[in-house]
Amino acid sequence: MSNDRSTILIVDDEASIRNLLALSLEDRYKIETAATADEALAKAREVRPQVVLLDIALSPYGGGQEGLEILPKLIDIDPKVKVVMVTGNTERANALAAIRDGAIDFYAKPIDLSDLKVIVDRAAYIRSLEDESLRPNTSEDQYTGFSNIIGHSPRMLKVFRLVETVAPTPYTVLISGESGTGKELIAKAIHSRSERSDKAFITINCGAIPENLLESELFGHEKGAFTDAFAQKIGKFELADKGTLFLDEIGELSLALQVKLLRFLQDRIIERVGGKAVIQVDVRIIAATNRSLSEEVEEKRFREDLYYRLTVINVDLPPLREREDDVAIIANYLLGVYGSENAKTNLNFSPSALQRIRSYNWPGNIRELENRIKRAVILSGSHRLTPEDLAFEGASGAEQKSLLQVREEAESNHIRAALVRNSWNVSKAARDLGTSRTTLYDLLEKYKIIKDK
Q: Is the pTM of this model over 0.85?
């Protein structure tokens, strides 16, 4: 835990339970307590707790749901507050309703302190990460790792460690990942941590320029090399001399240009179009692709020798759907950015909007998330963004998922991702997941997970 301890508000009408919870948590959190709904709301306004432990049945005179009734009021006071509902064994339906209304978790009495501490620690940790994501100048904090890159999930931490390792080296790097995962940001992070950081970082999208123009863009041309070549042109390789050249969508290069790139990687020389002079340039290449280059090699669309030259170091960026721990943090960060740009600094997500953000598959990855949030900030007339503001289809239906359904869906996706990472080797995937092969086989059977054809 940080030295700046989180505040926990314990709300229960039984003094013995308030005291028990306070004693068990006071060594790591600042503790506030309340016995009634009115006292809880007053305390929430006064101390702004990061986490609230809220008893559903606050009072026998409130119909057994007084805690449930003040839940939205607590969220109105602080939309980022993490509320854990404490319930009786017969109140499971109410607890699930509370999850749909914005609570982060629930726990049933009788209270097992060790289990409850895990839930509270998790809630406080998530809140601390969301708070960090909204602070200015968070480029070097504990979870972003690099400028403008947010992530604390295990997959992203592995990426960050790899980038820190390879950045100071002179080696060529290939960044692979789906469109919208942030490949250019990773390339810039590598450059900024290299010995070339004070030199040029030049970007070219190999798929955005017609093939007949791309050679000139990359290597330059001499005056009169072709029609309309009225003057000498310096290409991207020369512009990036002593610096870094980022070749995005490298899989779109024609075979002819692949040969010229291979020659540069072997000899560090280029020739301008229409020129005869050999030009030596000192450029580090970082390439990116959203294709499987190994499959392109098999289909004879990409040169095998170039493939091996490019894949000295391969940074594999996970899609957003495999970064479930990061999604809400990134969303809150982007909301802060676009809220500030549009002079709407009091914006937040409704609980149902955050639920959709966490459960959505994000085929367009971070770029899609960014576009949806930007649009919602511009068009919404309310301070609280809803699923409809974010243009989710069938938004109202998303609120009907139970906590159990959400957990099982996340677990199934996490297991499938581990299997894919380990080429469907169950033993390796089990080690990756920190479980046994027997348990993993049981989970494969439970979720009917089979290898894609």
A: no
